[in-house]
From TrEMBL, chains A, B:
Encoding gene per record: recR
Molecular-function annotations in GO: DNA binding; zinc ion binding
Residues in coiled coil: none
Protein name in UniProt: Recombination protein RecR
Alphabetical keyword list: DNA damage, DNA recombination, DNA repair, Metal-binding, Zinc, Zinc-finger
ZnF C4-type: positions: 60-75
Taxonomic lineage: Bacteria, Pseudomonadati, Pseudomonadota, Alphaproteobacteria, Hyphomicrobiales
Domain Toprim: residue ranges: 83-178
Length: 201, 201
């Protein structure tokens, strides 16, 4: 147990900050000091934003995303295409696709992947609700936007089986060369996928 | 302006988190999502710790450090040596020395270094108060624990001149090989300082 460097309120602040992803003990101390120095511009607004978020943030009962309203802004947006559902593992993936402005339809957040190692089966994921939504007659396509990892692809195969009963077309993201990517630095799997799934020029 | 990925409360949380040192826009989003997921264990305690800190943290009028009391815990600690003052640039340096348990005396936080480039002169630093404290007859030594940078050493030279009038011994940190350091990886300046200031074995 190292010697406490400041009063218990500051120590507690540092300990809590160190539990954020991307911050270790040292950077948590730097962040705490920065917050204390910028009390009016940063510490007090963050305190307000944190307590605001802790009361207002909800999980969307339709798609499983997080937002300050339920159903979330995307589920209640009348301008979106009702025929397409994009399935993602995590809210962070949904946010990434939204930033890319790549999706005109709806989303469904699984909350993880199937994993025998971690003991996560189909009942631990938001799958029953997905099948229910996909069975809606307006839905014609489900796009599986899962990570290109072993768990992601296992989950994709499982979902393809389950969704076959719902009578929708199931597609997945294209594999290939990332935009801006140099061939020399890509792995063999990506390169052979890019050759196999080549498109007319 | 990228498309907003979530409600305004969540967007605001992300924007404020991105202003912490060590967090960029992407890691701020990850941190926000982590906070939202761990609402009871992390978001709410942090909200409480932030508002607690924003009301209770003060700058010590004696040494310039930050703490929840004024004078701070170190200045009001009766068990510390009154004859030594260790001068540091920043509260983070004070915390680092305290963690090393290297100092039995008091501290003085300058709040930066002299810098012609950034237009910081002696009046912008906590120097007048240092001279006042050093003039106390109980104080016999001032240790300059400033960074080994050009600005740090310029400031050390200036302080040596100013403190000569106070009639105290002025010392500085030893330069040399860091503990655990390998000679092959050290710069020439450090190596020649380590040779010049060699000590008997």
């Amino acid at each position: 147990m190292p010697r406490a460097v400041a009063g218990p309120e500051i120590e507690r602040l540092i300990q809590l900050l160190a539990r954020l992803p991307g911050l270790g003990p040292r950077s948590a101390r730097r962040a705490a000091l920065h917050l204390i120095r910028k009390k009016d511009q940063l510490l007090m607004p963050l305190a307000a934003a944190f307590s605001e978020a802790s009361t207002s943030v909800k999980v969307c009962t339709s798609c499983g995303s997080v937002d300050t309203s339920d159903p979330c802004a995307i589920c209640s947006d009348q301008g979106r295409d009702n025929s397409v559902i994009v399935v993602v593992e995590d809210v962070a993936d949904l946010w990434a696709l939204e930033r890319a402005e790549a999706v005109g339809g709806r989303y469904h957040v699984l909350g993880g992947t199937l994993s025998a190692l971690d003991g996560r089966g189909p009942d631990d994921l938001n799958i029953a609700k997905l099948v229910e939504r996909a069975s809606d007659e307006r839905v014609t396509e489900v796009i599986l936007a899962l990570n290109a990892t072993v768990e992601g692809q296992t989950t994709a195969h499982y979902l393809t089986d389950v969704l076959a009963r719902a009578g929708v077309k199931v597609t997945r993201l294209a594999h290939g060369v990332p935009v801006g990517g140099e061939l020399d630095y890509l792995d063999e799997g990506t390169l052979s996928a890019a050759i196999r799934q080549r498109t007319p020029f």
